[in-house]
Amino acid sequence: MTTSFRTIWIKNPLSILAEHAGSGIVVQGTRIIELVAAGKTPATAYDDVFDASSHVVIPGLINTHHHFFQTLTRAHPEGINKELFPWLESLYPIWASKLDDESFRMANRLAMTELLLSGCTTASDHHYLFNDKLDGASDIQVEEAARSGIRFILNRGSMNLSKKDGGLPPDIAVQDEDTILADSERLLQMYHDVSDGAMLQVALAPCAPFNVTKRLMLESLYLAEKYDCQLHTHLAETLDENDYCLEHFNCRPVDYLEDVGWLNPRVWLAHGIHFNHDEICKLGKHGVGICHCPTSNMVLASGHCRTIDLENAGAPVGLGVDGSASNDSSNLIEGVRHALMLNRLTYNAATVTHFDAFRWATEGSAKCIGRSDIGKIEVGRQADLAMFTLDELRFSGAGDPLAALVLCGAHRADRVMVAGQWKVVDGEPVGTDIRELRSSHGEAARKFLGNL
Ligand SMILES: [Zn+2]
């Protein structure tokens, strides 16, 4: 079977984030089949050679938290210079009244392209806002992921508590429980692929415990077990949220999660900042993943995720860019740099190295989304790779090529491979005209600046 695939030797990388692969790797079909030790040549016969002598090769980065639709409201005058709750209260009405199928499609196309160009090969998008002008949100996301070639985790988000229930979102931005659950099951049946190497999976993702009902949390867990999928939500992003939980549920967010059965390895949480010591131990004990979003946490002044403590307790830690209205870009290699810097302020320089930041964005992210077939350059794993040159002025004089990607600020990959296929070549996305995309997306975004 495998002999029908072409085999390529990615030869003699300038540097590679893998052990015993100094002379590169061999890719056959969608997978890595051999690591070639320094000074050696492949034991496998190969059809093609890619000379990687000017490339730093790392596993494709995995983005475990994003809201693609927010690319339409970056640096929005209503949103800038605010913390989470007032930021949400300013932007919710704009999103709810303006978002439609066409602008949503452009937002997805742009975010996926940005991610690929930054070396990201797997993206998980948490879309939770459904209004009456957005009929086919999830199906649009599936179409756009296939178009771009990125590996995609569709998070069927949800909100069913709005202003009339004492929540933050406008009434027109939420759905009822039965609609959400029926659509969740439809998407799981249509798109959720549990096979090794899957290009498309579905996760269920109530937006946050403070904007959905308890029944929705419980029913989402039931569906996740039935269809073997992951569960995702925002948690402990701000102190406001902890206060809200205490006021409305008479407990802290982690206690509430425990109450609804969400402390298990199917679950990964966005942000995970405001935990106490006992909560960190509890999350670790149950293998709950945390998606660290350093850029967004700095922009919204949300706080410091205790990444090292969480990992030491047993919780996988991944990396996410978060929505493009609180980042305000979709650049994951930039997120790796921000993770290094922010965590050095939280801990110290010796405790947090560039290898830690890379691990969060690769292996850690893979664990969060329940994947063992991506996130590492290893025989048998998917051939998802990001390759950077050090040609720009910012790298001139750099000594350690891997450290240079993080310390000098790499921001654009030269080559990106997903499942053995080139999706970025010479810094350009395959099959996408960047100027046309910039123009179409810009036009779609302009109406989000107008009056409501
Ligand atoms: Zn988020």
Provide an overview of this structure.
The mean pLDDT is 96. Helix 3 links the parallel strand 8 (120-127) and strand 9 (151-158). The protein folds into two domains: 2-60 and 381-429, Roll (Urease, subunit C, domain 1), CATH 2.30.40.10; 61-368, Alpha-Beta Barrel (TIM Barrel), CATH 3.20.20. 37% of the residues lie in helices and 19% in strands. The chain contains 14 helices and 18 strands. The strands form four sheets. Strands 2-6-15-16-17-18 form a six-stranded mixed beta sheet, with helices on one face. Helix 2 runs parallel beside helix 3 (137-148) and helix 4 (177-191) runs parallel beside helix 5 (214-227). The chain is globular, with a radius of gyration of 21 Å. It is an alpha/beta fold and 452 residues long. The structure holds zinc ion. The site of zinc ion has 6 residues, from loops.
Count every beta strand, where a strand is a DSSP E run of 2 or more residues. 18
Q: Let me know the average pLDDT.
A: 96
What's the structural domain tally?
2
Helicity level, as a percent range?
25-40%
Contiguous runs where pLDDT drops below 50 for at least 5 residues: none
User: CATH superfamily membership of the largest domain, which one?
Assistant: Metal-dependent hydrolases
Structural class: alpha/beta
What share of the residues does DSSP label as strand, in percent?
Answer: 15-25%
Q: What do we call the CATH topology of the largest domain?
A: TIM Barrel
